[in-house]
């Protein structure tokens, strides 16, 4: 019997809902998807699914170790304990999420989720590895209390699924559900940069915590999505690390321990906003070079589709790949999300990433049971690629990127 990883099916499931939302928005003549924003969002989501290969089992092992060696109680399964665990997981999420907006270090992990100036199902995919780790640390209190890991993971799957459906502008207010559930209306408020909406509606499934602790806000005016100071970049790497770099620059220029402590654990609003410009100058970050032509859009779209397909089968059949193949496949997926982000900004250096993808594919084949003669053919092909790198680059930059 073939052994498969059923978590892989999250990819086609969520992609299907994204396409349904897009079709619905077109039918209603309501534009809620920008091409570059959607691709940048999906890039972050693809990287997060890739890291699940490493983190899903690791989190379960950590929770199990805490439960086996440090649990205060050993809680049994019944209706009351399942209900209590649901309330606790949602409350811990609220605490984590609120800290993620009010503590610089945690905001550095969470900020990626709020960068998009669109609000749709692709936005919900903007979850990073660092954010997942921080969230897991908060939830580690549950096995310490005495909840078995399998109970915890049941609700973690729910918390990973439900928020996906609150990231949309196509669903209005939902009547009496608005009183106790987090709805799309509530979450639109949370993702908005309007002054009256800042640091509001941190709940994940239940909105009751926001109502109890004074962080609730009703949707009363049209939301403006994204950061209060827009990032204006679709670079995968810059999106992930810009705020951590701003913290590092502030930390270096700090003159005493108190200032350094405040940089790490203070509020994001306390950081000098000019640090963003310093980082952009240091790493030559600038806005995209004009509109993307239809050929480049199609190339990016097909590349993203192929990346998701490869990722799906990598996760689905992970037990049948060698360690070497998994390493090369992971690098190939990661380079793809970095390169498509660079294509959105028409960066000429993306050509070298495209070249690297070919070499990685050759590495995957090298770990496969192929004949020695075919390996020599691959080596000859790589030599030709390297020999003609300059003319191929000129063609790529002018024809593909149109720079």
Molecular structure report:
The protein is an all-alpha fold. The protein folds into three domains: 7-213, no CATH class; 236-282; 294-400, no CATH class. 63% of the residues lie in helices and 0% in strands. The protein starts with 9 loop residues before the first helix and ends with a helix.
Could you say which structural class the secondary elements and strand pairing correspond to?
A: mainly alpha
Sum up the overall morphology in one term. globular
Distance between the termini: 52 Å
Main sheet specs: none
Q: Give the number of domains.
A: 3
Please provide the ordered H/E string of secondary-structure elements.
Answer: HHHHHHHHHHHHHHHHH
Tally of DSSP β-strands? 0
* Overall pLDDT score: 90
Low-pLDDT runs: none
User: What is the share of helical residues?
Assistant: 55-70%
What oligomeric state do the depicted chains represent? Answer: single chain
The portion of residues forming beta strands comes to under 5%
Rg, Å, rounded = 23 Å
How many distinct helices? 17
Give the secondary structure arrangement, pairings included.
Blueprint: H1 10-27, H2 35-70, H3 79-102, H4 104-110, H5 129-139, H6 141-145, H7 149-161, H8 184-190, H9 208-213, H10 236-253, H11 257-265, H12 274-282, H13 294-316, H14 323-344, H15 350-366, H16 372-387, H17 389-400
């Amino acid at each position: 019997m073939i052994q498969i990883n059923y978590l892989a099916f999250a990819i086609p499931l969520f992609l299907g809902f994204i396409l349904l939302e897009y079709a619905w928005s077109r039918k209603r003549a309501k534009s809620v998807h920008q091409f570059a924003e959607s691709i940048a969002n999906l890039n972050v989501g693809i990287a997060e699914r890739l890291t699940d290969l490493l983190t899903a089992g690791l989190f379960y092992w950590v929770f199990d170790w805490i439960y086996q060696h440090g649990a205060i109680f050993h809680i049994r399964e019944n209706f009351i304990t399942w209900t209590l665990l649901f309330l606790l997981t949602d409350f811990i999420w609220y605490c984590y999420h609120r800290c993620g907006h009010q503590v610089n270090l945690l905001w550095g992990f969470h900020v990626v989720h709020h960068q998009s100036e669109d609000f749709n199902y692709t936005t919900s995919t903007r979850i990073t590895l660092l954010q997942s780790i921080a969230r897991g640390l908060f939830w580690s209190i549950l096995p310490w209390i005495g909840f078995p890991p399998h109970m915890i993971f049941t609700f973690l799957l729910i918390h990973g699924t439900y928020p996906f459906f609150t990231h949309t502008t196509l669903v209005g207010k939902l009547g009496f559900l608005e009183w106790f559930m987090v709805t799309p209306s509530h979450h639109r408020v949370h993702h908005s940069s309007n002054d009256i909406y800042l640091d509001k509606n941190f709940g994940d499934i239940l909105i009751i915590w926001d109502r109890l602790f004074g962080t609730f806000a009703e949707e009363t005016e049209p939301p403006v999505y994204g950061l209060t100071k827009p990032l204006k970049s679709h670079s995968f790497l810059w999106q992930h690390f810009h705020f951590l770099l701003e913290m590092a620059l502030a930390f270096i220029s700090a003159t005493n321990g108190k200032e350094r402590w405040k940089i790490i654990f203070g509020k994001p609003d306390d950081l000098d906003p000019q640090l963003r410009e310093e980082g952009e100058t240091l790493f030559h970050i600038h806005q995209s070079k004009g509109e993307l032509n239809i050929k480049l859009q199609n190339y990016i779209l097909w590349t993203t589709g192929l990346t998701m397909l490869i990722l799906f089968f990598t996760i689905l059949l992970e037990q049948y790949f060698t360690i070497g193949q998994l390493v090369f496949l992971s690098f190939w997926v990661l380079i793809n999300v970095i390169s498509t982000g660079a294509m959105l900004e028409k960066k000429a250096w993306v050509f070298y990433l495209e070249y690297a993808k070919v070499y990685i594919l050759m590495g995957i084949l090298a770990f496969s049971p192929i004949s020695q003669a075919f390996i020599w053919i691959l080596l000859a092909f790589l030599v030709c690629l390297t020999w003609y790198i300059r003319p191929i680059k000129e063609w790529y930059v002018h024809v593909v990127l149109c720079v």
